[in-house]
Amino acid sequence: MKSRSRSRAAVKSWKALKAYRHPGLFITGTNTDIGKTTVTAALAAALMRLNVRVGVCKPVASGCPKRGDRGVFGRLVDEDMLSPDGESIARGAGLDVTDDALMARISPLRLAAPIAPYAAQRFEGRRLDWSRVAGALEDWRNQCDFLLVEGAGGWMSPLDEKPVRTVADLAVILGLPCLVVAGASLGTINHTWLTVNAIAQRQLPLAGVVFNAVSEPPDIGASTSIEDFPRLTGVPVLATLPKVKLNANRPVPEVLVDLLVPLARRLWQQFGKPGQSG
């Protein structure tokens, strides 16, 4: 009976989610560790340069370290953990990472295990409370003019089970236009094309693709993939970003922000409120 009760509670909290009917963008990727957080943070900083009041949200984060001042392993709750990805995108948006209430809005669900969220919660004996995400998104409605929502892993990465919920399911509920972050290694056309097709099947608007962490100069595999992808698929490549060194002191490299300002202006004009900035 206990497991059934937990399952019913999880379904109930998922039903708390609803469409985000305000300007924004859902950022997904072709895989995990593809650079979604870096792109989200840099895009937030680029929007800031256009005087856009930008909000950021990473609904689910795993691999979150325990805070030194609170929490006991085996009985952790979301606030017991830090969210490195949440802090990166917060810094990109110029937000205070020491404000716990604000960080709860930016990174509402946090899991310690560095594995997919559905498996991490099972490993930790927890259930994701999606009403926390619903509350965070509701708060953002009146706190920003454009919201960047970063998914976890790739488009079909599982977030929950019993029943199974994926990143795609979350994106469909929110109903935001999607931006795909892709790598530029050999095989990226296959991975990226599969992702954009899956987004189209869910009938969501697709802003385009950003190729991230491209070596300079790009090798022949990267250069041909970037050149050929829009010709083969009809999906625009919105930006090509170089590989840069990331560290805690420089989570949002200025070179990436510089490159993303034109894209930020385009996205704001296309999906935001034209005429209010930049």
Describe the oligomeric state of these chains in a short phrase. single chain
Number of domains: 1
How would a textbook summarize the main sheet? 6 strands, parallel
- In CATH, the homologous superfamily goes by the name P-loop containing nucleotide triphosphate hydrolases
CATH topology: Rossmann fold
Shape: globular
Low-confidence segments, ≥5 residues, pLDDT <50?
274-278
What is the CATH class?
Alpha Beta
Straight-line N-to-C gap: 57 Å
CATH architecture call: 3-Layer(aba) Sandwich
Helix content: 40-55%
Radius of gyration: 18 Å
Instruction: Give the count of helical stretches.
Output: 10
The average pLDDT value, as a whole number, equals: 92
Any overview of this molecule?
This protein has a single domain (8-269), classed as 3-Layer(aba) Sandwich (Rossmann fold), CATH 3.40.50. The protein is 42% helix and 16% strand. It has 10 helices and 10 strands. The chain has helices at 2-14, 36-49, 84-92, 100-106, 117-124, 130-141, 167-174, 188-201, 220-233, 254-271, and strands at 24-29, 54-57, 60-61, 109-110, 146-150, 158-160, 165-166, 178-182, 206-214, 237-242. Strands 2-5-1-8-9-10 form a 6-stranded parallel beta sheet, with helices on both faces. It has a two-stranded parallel ribbon with strand order 3-4. Helix 2 packs parallel to helix 3 and helix 2 (36-49) crosses helix 10. It is globular. The protein starts with a helix and ends in a 7-residue tail after the last helix.
Topology:
Blueprint: H1 2-14, E1 24-29, H2 36-49, E2 54-57, E3 60-61, H3 84-92, H4 100-106, E4 109-110, H5 117-124, H6 130-141, E5 146-150, E6 158-160, E7 165-166, H7 167-174, E8 178-182, H8 188-201, E9 206-214, H9 220-233, E10 237-242, H10 254-271
Parallel strand pairs: 1-5, 1-8, 2-5, 3-4, 8-9, 9-10
Antiparallel strand pairs: 6-7
Helix pairs in contact: 2-3, 2-10
